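We examine the record.

___
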Amino acid sequence: PHKDTPGGAPPAEREETAKDATLPDPASEAIAALEAGATTEEALDAYDRAAAALLAPDAAAVRAERIAAELAAAAKEGKEA
């Protein structure tokens, strides 16, 4: 448990900890691949996969915002017609 909160860490801190735990660090992934005997190309692939995982949530949020705007515009056009 968190020292200041009886039930554990504050929600924002829990969220940050969970986010850190699930997202890979690209450099660490590449180094781990090299240490496991991967080629430089394989290590770079591991780096790219980890970097893509970091960017995926942002890309999904941008796409969701765009879709929501398109739906709102379509709904507005439907009401005006």
Remarks:
- The chain has one domain: 11-80.
